[in-house]
Amino acid sequence: MAPRRRHGRFLITLGEESETDSEESDVSGSDGEDTSWVSWFCNLRGNEFFCEVDDEYIQDDFNLCGLSNQVPYYDYALDLILDVESSHGDMFTEEQNELVESAAEMLYGLIHVRYILTSKGMAAMLEKYKNYDFGRCPRVYCCGQPCLPVGQSDIPRSNIDGAYFGTTFPHLFLMTYGHLKPQKPTQSYVPRVFGFKMHKP
């Protein structure tokens, strides 16, 4: 059976056409139209924080400067992201196709971190912020303040890096949308044991 790739998933070509059609409909959605790889990737469970990067932004070589050195299978990964049919896909083994898919996910993340620093990217992240897609701070005195994603490192795969959001994004976001900056809490936490304040030496 020859595997066929479709938005990062392998569909096994079956003898009966009806089974193949039903599998394809699971991937492409109920409306019968194919979704783009970017939409598919952003809608995967666990990828809710990602916003959809415009195709025009991805197609501009200036925005991808330096990424080819960081991502293996760069050209194939870029073709996968842009839904460009590649003639080389048939020559790859299943393992190589998985490597290309993994490279595409990494490449998209590195493009994403650049995109969210643009005005369009900021606007897309603002919508997610307003919808509390990033969650709310659980601290009592934060009063349900919406959270923002932040990375401790811009280098991918360095411990828990957050490289797909970067170290710059939350600061630039709150500078751009100053009215969203959280107010300082009127109360501060006082540590207590059995209701009594802790003595500070």
UniProtKB/TrEMBL annotation:
Could you name the Gene Ontology cellular component terms for this entry?
cytoplasm; protein kinase CK2 complex
Q: What is this protein called?
A: Casein kinase II subunit beta
State the protein's purpose. Answer: Plays a complex role in regulating the basal catalytic activity of the alpha subunit.
According to the UniProt record, where is the region Disordered? 13-34
SUPFAM superfamilies according to UniProt: Casein kinase II beta subunit (SSF57798)
Bias (Acidic residues) occurs at: 16-34
Family (UniProt): Belongs to the casein kinase 2 subunit beta family.
Q: State the Pfam families in the record.
A: CK_II_beta
- GO molecular function ontology, one term from the record: protein kinase regulator activity
The organism named in the record is: Salvia splendens (Scarlet sage)
Subunit details for this protein? Tetramer of two alpha and two beta subunits.
Phylogenetic lineage: Eukaryota, Viridiplantae, Streptophyta, Embryophyta, Tracheophyta
* Source species, domain of life: Eukaryota
